[in-house]
Amino acid sequence: MGVLWLDDVRAADLETVGGKGASLGELTEAGLPVPPGFVVTAGTYRAFIEEAGIDEELFAAMDVDPEDSAALKQASETAHELILETPFPEEVRQEILAAYEELGGGTFVAVRSSATAEDLPDASFAGQQETYLNVRGEKLLERVKECWASLFSQRAIYYRERKDFPHDVVDIAVVVQEMVDAEKSGVMFTSHPSTGEPRLIIEAAWGLGEAVVSGTVSPDNYVYDRKNGVVEEVTVADKKVQMIKDPESGETVEVEVEEDRRNARVLSDEEIEELVTLGGRVEDHYDSPQDVEWAIVDGDVYMLQSRPITTIDDDEAELEEERESENGESGDVLIRGLGASPGVVAGEVRVVTELDQLDKVDDGDILVTEMTMPDMVPAMKRAAGIVTDEGGMTSHAAIVSRELGVPAVVGTGSGSRELVDGQVVTIDGDRGTVTEGRTEPAEPDHEPVEEVRPKTPVKPMTATEVKVNVSIPEAAERAAATGADGVGLLRMEHMVLTLGKTPERYIQDEGPEAYQDRLVEGIQGVAEEFYPRPVRVRTLDAPTDEFRSMDGGEDEPTEHNPMLGWRGIRRSLDKPDVFQHELAAFRKLYDMGYDNVELMLPLVNDAEDVIQAKKLMQEAGIDIEKRKWGVMVETPASAIMVEEMAEEGIDFASFGTNDLTQYTLAVDRNNEHVADRFDELHPAVLELIKDTIATCREHDVDTSICGQAGSKPEMVDFLVEEGISSISANIDAVRDVQHEVKRVEQQLILDSVR
Ligand code: PEP
Ligand code: MG
Does the global pTM surpass 0.85? Predict the structure, then answer.
């Protein structure tokens, strides 16, 4: 039989219908609300490959070294070609289409892979195979084959090879189920996923469950105490997007959530009660805690999947452990992200969801949060390590933790939801892992200032200056200890965002003098520490969303894309009544004798921006002939227009490669989903930099880099060869950059005399 109806399927049919099919059959049998459907059995897949005679070639292609990624890719491609290009035997085709007709032909269905070894206690294949939503008509046949082919994704082949799981014993069934056009959906853990306590946890978002399962949206979180029968905790998330069926094409699409529903609670108390009742029935049926996918449409709740909870002890983690044990890492990998600040450290988790919870972070704890904010810096300093859900290598969390010398893993997606208070974990800020337990290497006490002090008695003398970046004035001492030739970028954002009020509100409440003085204090600390070495201070560049949580933030405009919005010089020129106080702070510093302070303008595009800023500087009493000032090159426009800006008298142009990369490649620097595409060494970015340096040299304008990429040896090599005037690196990279610059300079000298 090519297909089996879910009504007729039981747990014992696992070999025929796979883990997912068996579980849906069981739930249907237990009288739980499961959307109707059928399963294209594993036998059908097996008959397909055997009768078409592609089986031998298919399995032979799998004989590869799993560590050889090119071979793995080739094996996967061969399998896909074989399966997708072999036509269906006519009777199988007819049988599937007939079942589809019976389901009410023309309806939208979900097509879901169900591998026969999936969800077994000794194998965790879950999530390795494909699911297709909103499929209709003959397209179903294609999707079934694509599910079969997904048994041979690179990840699946790798997994089986590493687990010594023969490729030819795993079969795949495909569940075809009436599509639930969910208004809301999510997942539910019938007991606490880490501790097993009788606490039911529900995650819920608008639209189809894909958004929650894939981590595209931060869902609401509800905790229900099953012992006392009460909703214990409700955390409503900002649900920016949802997945829905496009009414025109029928495809699943991601759309923005309407403004009034974004921060609205998804589940009512009654709906929670209903889910709790169903969750209890599922758990009773299986006699073990379950992880359930659910959906609600027209007030009816549906169960879409149920699996035993294996969070702590699953095989995937074991595999990770094996993979990394050679490197000395042990313990189960709980979650992964980007290694943003190096070092391995262990401690107790403290999840911070609100600013008023910062006190719970003590010395040596691991601070876990969605995204760090300037107000969190004191807690970040106490923390032994930092883990965030969001953010890339140039996010606030990454920049500040590096400056503080605190190991950090950013962009984990769900760290603040998966890790729990008091849990002991080890974070590895190089590899980007968070593992269970305390597995850090024994290390002498951490001395952030001493660590960065040059170890050789004399720091390498280089013609290209090597400077340092500072984002929080408190890091000044550590930054100066590096022996850097100055500060290539002092960001003003931190000083302003820690005021607790937007600049406008602060000035209104406390007066312009107070605002100016707060800026003077922040800059002075760094200028003093480095005097007479130059300190390049950048005027304010905070996107509007960072102001939102502050007093006065309610007056900020709502922008769809704050990164492309009202920030940097754009805002300053539009609001000269606020900008003038920043400029007045510079003037005060000059009057106090800090002639090492330089002024840098962020996010300029062209000479017009420079002309306007120059005028305001002069109005503020800054002698633009005497003082050093310049621009950041952060947009392709500014790189292309640098000649015109040079003609306006800038002293320097500094590459902000964090932004230059994001705007050149159209890759949001803070979006962990595209972090692998954020490449500062992309030829397009390098081309812009190269041309800018050449133009600036012709006009006697100094060039510099102050983006994160200035700490990368490959970038350093490129820039020195192109003739950049200075490189500004992260505190912990200064020493290496000094040596790298010296090496390249000596090489260039040697090359010229040989
Ligand atoms: C940059 O864009 O590279 C930069 C240094 O500025 P910021 O990190 O503030 O974006
Ligand atoms: Mg920038």
Answer: no
